[in-house]
């Protein structure tokens, strides 16, 4: 009863995706979750399935994961609200237009479709954008989902294949093949996947940093927006490691609501909304879409992305041969969940992975420590 | 008793005569159309009538999500079911 082939700590979208992959492969799976499955970072984010190209390894994982989402598309229940909206990276000026062309070349080399929009084309795609923008890059196959229901779907699929959800107690310690829960009971498993997001109880030394973000959601304004829009300046601001920043990032929901982001704050672990940065974020959005100022937002919340020093997740084995990581996805946990789950399942089943798993191996942490002296 | 003064509001495109002083949600109810449609398309109308339940939202003079139970009709006002 308390022995598993794979025991997953954390039932966020990453843990649930891992559970589904492993259970479908015939492994006996347990999932430990102290709170509500999908109730942490999974519930706080936007649910943008996006190919990102900060680094070749990030591009490879996001492209691969997006292709896995596309395979799932037809079987996802309507509650997941998968919509093939496409992303438009918005270029404000000619300097950013140069980035649009560079980005298109990178995407093309990875086999990712994208279309350059000029000033007139972006205005016709998104009439509510302010006039006079230089253009943008449309990535038509990027999509939007509602992440908590996606996690619930993965979990339900896993449970249909025999996975067991163990609710109510947190894992506080792991030893070789053994997990100790906060009530003192133990579970045994050949493999343990740590997918606890920001919770570093098990490996407190693991280099992970919380980055606080704000989101606002409006009332329903159907047809105000067609694509997910992100300003190209987002890439510049998101790269800053130490400063707080905001960027224009807006998403249409199936309900007609608009989800407005984004902010990044460092060293702020308070969950309360921060009015100063929220104002800055909404002003930034109104600067790109002036009509937003007349719409009503009905709710604001915060969440924490969990980032690694090199901005790539930890996926794979640790020095304890029974302990595996699936952590540190920063803003890309929703996008990358299926890819991370597949890479781990490949490892467990001795299958050849479709993409090179080495850039995400946690063993690079030791190397990073050496590199930093 | 003198007949109360009336005014005209346009509800879903139809000119409708209402007593001066009527709240918009009452005019919508009298016109027999829903204030708004839910996400699944179900018709909704004023429930609490005191600005709390938000079921009476409609588009008034082009502005969506107006709580019509808190608005008094003006002559020439346009009112539309919120979709």
Structure at a glance:
The complex is a heterodimer of chains A (373) and B (83). Chain A has helices at 13-24, 41-44, 56-72, 94-109, 119-125, 147-160, 233-239, 275-288, 333-348, 364-371, and strands at 3-9, 29-33, 48-49, 87-91, 115-118, 135-139, 143-144, 164-167, 171-175, 178-181, 186-194, 209-220, 228-231, 245-252, 257-266, 297-307, 314-317, 323-327. Chain A has 373 residues and is an alpha/beta fold.
Note the beta-strand portion of chain B. 25-35%
Q: Mean pLDDT of chain A, rounded to whole units?
A: 95
Shape of chain A: globular
The whole-angstrom Rg of chain A is 20 Å
Instruction: Quote the distance from N terminus to C terminus of chain A.
Output: 46 Å
Structural class of chain A: alpha/beta
Taking pLDDT < 50 over at least 5 consecutive residues as the criterion, the unreliable ranges of chain A are none
Main β sheet profile of chain A: 8 strands, mixed
Strand order of the largest sheet of chain B: 2-1-7-5-6
Overall pLDDT metric of chain B: 95
Order of helices and strands of chain A: EHEHEHEHEHEEHEEEEEEHEEHEEEHH
The interface involving the most residues is between:
A-B, 8 and 6 residues
Number of helices of chain A: 10
* Alpha plus pi helix count of chain B: 1
State the assembly state of the protein chains.
heterodimer
Q: Helix and strand string of chain B, N-terminal first?
A: EEHEEEEE
**Main sheet of chain B, how many strands, which sense, barrel?**
5 strands, mixed
Report the strand count of chain B.
7
| Uncertain residue ranges of chain B | none
Organism (chain A): Edaphobacter dinghuensis
Protein name (chain A): D-amino acid oxidase
Domain FAD dependent oxidoreductase (chain A): 5-346
Keywords (chain A): Oxidoreductase
For this entry, give a set of tags:
heterodimer, A: 373 residues, alpha/beta, 8-stranded mixed beta sheet, 10 helices, B: 83 residues, mainly beta, 5-stranded mixed beta sheet, two-stranded antiparallel sheet, globular, FAD-dep_OxRdtase (chain A)
């Amino acid at each position: 009863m308390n022995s598993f082939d794979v025991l997953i700590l954390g039932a966020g979208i990453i843990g649930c995706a891992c559970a589904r992959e492993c259970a479908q492969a015939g492994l006996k799976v347990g999932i430990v979750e102290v709170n509500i499955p999908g109730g942490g970072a999974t519930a706080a984010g936007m649910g943008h399935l996006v190919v990102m190209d900060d680094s070749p390894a990030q591009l490879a994982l996001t492209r691969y994961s997006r292709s896995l989402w596309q395979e799932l598309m037809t079987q996802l229940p309507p509650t997941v609200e998968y919509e093939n909206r496409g992303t438009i990276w918005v270029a404000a000026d000619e300097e950013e237009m140069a980035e649009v062309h560079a980005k298109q070349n990178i995407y093309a080399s990875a086999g990712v479709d994208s279309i350059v929009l000029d000033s007139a084309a972006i205005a016709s795609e998104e009439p509510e954008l302010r006039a006079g923008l230089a253009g943008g890059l449309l990535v038509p196959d990027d999509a939007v989902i509602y992440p908590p229901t996606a996690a619930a779907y993965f979990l339900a699929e896993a449970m249909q294949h025999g996975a067991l959800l163990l609710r109510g107690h947190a894992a506080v310690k792991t030893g070789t093949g053994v997990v100790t829960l906060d009530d003192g009971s133990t579970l045994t498993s050949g493999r343990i996947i740590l997918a606890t997001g920001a919770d570093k109880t098990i490996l407190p030394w693991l280099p992970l940093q919380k980055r606080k973000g704000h989101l606002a959601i409006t009332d329903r304004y159907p047809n105000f927006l067609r694509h997910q829009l992100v300003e190209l300046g987002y890439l510049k601001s998101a790269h800053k490691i130490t400063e707080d920043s905001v960027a224009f990032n807006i998403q249409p929901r199936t309900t007609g609501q608009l989800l407005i982001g984004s902010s990044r704050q460092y060293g702020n672990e308070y969950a309360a909304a921060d009015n100063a940065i929220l104002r800055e974020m909404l002003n930034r959005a109104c600067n790109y879409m002036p009509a937003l100022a007349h719409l009503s937002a009905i709710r604001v919340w915060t969440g924490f992305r969990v980032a690694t020093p090199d901005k790539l997740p930890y996926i794979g084995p640790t020095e304890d041969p029974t302990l595996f990581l699936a952590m540190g996805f920063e803003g890309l946990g929703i996008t990358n969940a299926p890819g991370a789950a597949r890479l781990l399942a490949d490892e467990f089943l001795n299958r050849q992975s479709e993409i090179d798993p080495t850039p995400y191996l946690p063993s690079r942490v030791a190397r990073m420590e050496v590199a930093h002296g | 008793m003198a007949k109360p003064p009336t005014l005209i509001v346009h509800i879903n495109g139809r000119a409708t005569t209402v007593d001066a002083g009527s709240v918009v949600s009452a005019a919508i109810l009298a016109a027999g159309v829903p204030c708004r449609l839910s996400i699944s398309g179900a018709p909704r109308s004023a429930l609490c009538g005191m600005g709390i339940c938000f079921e009476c939202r409609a588009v008034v003079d082009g502005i969506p999500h107006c709580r019509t139970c808190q608005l008094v009709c003006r002559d020439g006002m346009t009112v539309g079911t919120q979709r």
